[in-house]
């Protein structure tokens, strides 16, 4: 009997890669693990960056801190652009604007009473000094003359404060009214406001100052008598009228005595009107020291205008023209009889000597 014979076919080995489902399963697992690892790395990196940023913020000043005016502040003239950024409230409300930097310190611009006054003298160079000081970023100066202590005292300190420009902490508020120096009641009134206020007086050769004063008067009222007629009570005897305003203002010792009755000499700084023209940087250095300011206004800010005979400010950044004082400054003086000038010099000599003793310096007026 014939037995049926079946041919034996060995089984082929089963290779894992041959099964698509298993391959796909393994790839999915590998991808998931990769995503998980990447996420962990990203999370840890983010934590480290956040921690580092917090540390940096503790020591890094706010962006606003870099806006504080300093030696290189390009528009030092009264820092008006800075005040406009931080000194006005929302929608121009006029209220103090406050901001808080990362250190929690508030930036506030407010109106406050002045810490320094330019009190005199008329036609001595007070306008020039004020304009030069306004270059300093730590000075906030009122441009007009408020005449508070001599004319508007009855309006009160609130009115006076409202006239002042807004200032940040650390800035010095200053105003000038040359009439203060010669007004009898002013020293006591200023003292009542502040016993620590700093006072600045620009003085000039009283004879030259009187002629300059008369030149300004005659430009506005050309029909007044001549200088020679007004300067003397009696031309025959040569008696000088010391009560005539242009001559009376030049009695510096008399006016200084009233101020020294209320304020110590250390609180009164005297500026030479002559040196303010010949060496403005030198005089400004002394004024900045007196006010406790950094010496920022230097000789690099000035040039001498030969036409006007006065120093002018060099072109500020962003301006195409230099800045000089107005047309009324440096005008040609009226011609005065030399004999009259000699009599005036003789009249002022003892007054000047007394003033030199009070001032502790000789201004060299003939």
Automatic annotation (TrEMBL):
Q: Where is the active site?
A: 123 (for sulfotransferase activity)
Q: Which cysteine pairs are joined by S-S bonds?
A: 312-324
The record, for InterPro entries, names: NST/OST (IPR037359), P-loop_NTPase (IPR027417), Sulfotransferase_dom (IPR000863)
Q: Which UniProt keywords apply?
A: Disulfide bond, Glycoprotein, Golgi apparatus, Membrane, Signal-anchor, Transferase, Transmembrane, Transmembrane helix
Gene3D superfamilies xrefs: P-loop containing nucleotide triphosphate hydrolases
Which molecular function terms from Gene Ontology are attached?
[heparan sulfate]-glucosamine 3-sulfotransferase activity
Q: Which residues bind 3'-phosphoadenylyl sulfate?
A: 123-127, 204, 212, 329-333
Major localization class:
membrane
What's any one GO cellular component for it? Golgi membrane
Q: Give me the segments passing through the membrane.
A: none
Uppermost EC category? transferase
Q: What is its EC number?
A: 2.8.2.-
Topology with respect to the bilayer? Single-pass type II membrane protein
Q: Where in the cell is it found?
A: Endomembrane system; Golgi apparatus membrane
Residues in Sulfotransferase domain copies: 114-351
Which PANTHER family does the entry mention?
HEPARAN SULFATE SULFOTRANSFERASE, SULFOTRANSFERASE
Family the UniProt entry places it in: Belongs to the sulfotransferase 1 family.
- The protein's name in its UniProt record: Sulfotransferase
Q: Which organism is it from?
A: Oryzias melastigma
